[in-house]
Amino acid sequence: MELRGIDLNLLVSLRVLLTQRHVTRSAEKLGLTQPAMSASLARSRTLFRDKLLVRGPQGLVLTPRGEQILEQLNKIMEVTERLIAVPGEFRPETCNRTFVLMGSDYVEFFLLPSLMATLATEAPNVQILFVSPDHRNLEAMLANSELDLMVGYLPEPPKELIRRTLFREPIICVARRGHPVLHDENLSLEHFVELPHVQVLPRGATMFADAVDTAIAAIGLIRRVVLWQPNFLAVGNVVSRTDLISTVPSRVAAHFVQELPIVAYDPPLALPVPDVAMYWHSRSQEDAGHKWLRGKIAVLLKP
């Protein structure tokens, strides 16, 4: 088959379809109607002589041929993007690009206010789409252009990603003011182990939980966690109204102390100091806009 007989726009639509695995979402992403998207899928099935997408127990799934085509399309699109990219100086004041960032609510809290203030002044047409952590799919999302940057703490980051450390974040203990057990300025190891804990555990990640439990286990002890939840900022309301204690990043602890009847304590044992970093895929390394955004975030989060 000759290439001049193929509508290359069909391949762009097909890649979105195979990635999204949903006709309506794909149509919305491309600015098309659902009938137009369905017609595009029908044409792709004819072109490749395969169903490509079939119904499964929880929605559409790729056929083996569909999986193979998606892998090849990702490579083709990456090469094409590099081919047609116009090198030159990035001009933030005229850029209307959307950047997709990933991080926990903790990252939203300390990054987004300063970042959005900067963009309002320097790049008023740039948009930010901030998504919740999905560490299991992080590498694939970065490789497939679904995500530009991950900002946060990853105990075991994928080796294929590029990393830039932004700062180190101590872990601090918090408890409510007037706690019936804690009467002095220090939190003893005995109380730390015996009191019930609330611990943040984002989807698909252990984050600070492993660091705390590993340190406790190293001295032959174990703590009692009675509440696991995905968000850092919600911990404050729980701690301020119960006898539960928690371990959170120092910036979050400082916010709690300022806004809620909460007291911060130094941990009663040596805990590692995690690195908060930016992570991105090598495909974005030389992208001018991406480099500009990375530089801005690095400056904004400089200790």
What does this structure look like?
The chain is α/β, with parallel strands linked by helices and 303 residues long. The protein has 11 helices and 12 strands. The chain has helices at residues 8-20, 23-30, 34-48, 64-84, 105-122, 138-143, 189-194, 208-218, 235-240, 250-259, 288-300, and strands spanning 53-56, 59-62, 98-102, 127-131, 149-152, 162-168, 171-176, 196-200, 224-229, 246-249, 262-265, 275-280. A hairpin with a 2-residue loop joins strand 1 and strand 2. The longest helix is centred in the first third of the chain and has 21 residues, at 64-84. It is elongated.
Describe the structure concisely for a colleague.
The protein is an alpha/beta fold and 303 residues long.
Overall pLDDT score:
89
Strand content: 15-25%
* CATH fold-type name of the largest domain: D-Maltodextrin-Binding Protein, domain 2
The CATH architecture term of the largest domain is 3-Layer(aba) Sandwich
What percentage of residues falls in helices of 4 or more residues? 40-55%
Helix and strand run: HHHEEHEHEHEEEHEHEHEHEEH
Q: Please report the number of helical segments.
A: 11
* Major sheet details: 5 strands, mixed
- Total beta strands: 12
Task: Identify the strand order in the major beta sheet.
Answer: 4-3-5-12-6
The level-1 CATH class of the largest domain: Alpha Beta
The computed structural class is: alpha/beta
The Cα radius of gyration reads 24 Å
